[in-house]
Design brief:
- The protein has one domain: START domain (Alpha-D-Glucose-1,6-Bisphosphate, Chain A, domain 4), CATH 3.30.530.20.
- It is α+β, with helices and mostly antiparallel strands.
- Strands 2-3-4-5-6-7-1-8 form an 8-stranded antiparallel β-sheet, with helices on one face.
- Strand 4 and strand 5 form a beta hairpin.
- Helix 2 packs across helix 4.
């Protein structure tokens, strides 16, 4: 499954980068986040209660950052276990670009799941995942004190 979007953030790129790496901002922005802590220079541990419509599993897992170009881009890869429902994993590329004194943030992610989660159906999970992403960026802006506006996909 693929997800993503483009967002205009009414803040300088350095401020957006700092917020993307601030666990307090992330905890406030991630729906259902019970805990998120740095476990190393490029690793985070987290615990999130996810709303998949008919069920609400708590996923415990980790995130790792790679391909880091400070204040410009990184790839975030994560895996989590949701109890009896099985495993979920995903990867997201996050790219920041100056737009005057403000920032364009591009988010492109892929994700998948195993076991019982997939039996719920891709449509339910896909809709829930996109709502989580959209909600994350709305709350991310609030947590960092900036307006975040979704942008249309680039014209090809």
């Amino acid at each position: 499954m693929e997800f993503g979007g483009r967002y205009h953030v009414a803040a300088p790129r350095q401020q957006v980068w700092a917020a993307l790496n601030d666990t307090e901002v992330l905890k406030a922005a991630i729906p259902g986040c019970h805990r998120i802590d740095w476990a190393g220079e490029t690793a985070l541990d987290l615990e999130i209660k996810v709303n998949l419509g008919v069920v609400h599993p708590v996923f415990k897992g980790g995130l790792s950052l790679s391909g880091i170009v400070p204040a410009e881009r990184y790839t975030l890869t994560g895996k989590g276990k949701g109890g009896l429902l099985g495993l979920a994993e995903g990867s997201a590329d996050i790219v920041l670009r100056d737009v005057g004194d403000e920032t364009e943030l591009v988010f492109a992610a892929t994700g998948g799941a195993s076991g019982q989660i997939m039996r719920l159906g891709k449509a339910i999970i896909g809709n829930s995942a996109q709502k989580v992403i959209d909600g994350f960026f709305e709350r991310f802006g609030e947590a960092m004190g900036a307006t975040v506006t979704p942008l249309p996909p680039p014209s090809e």
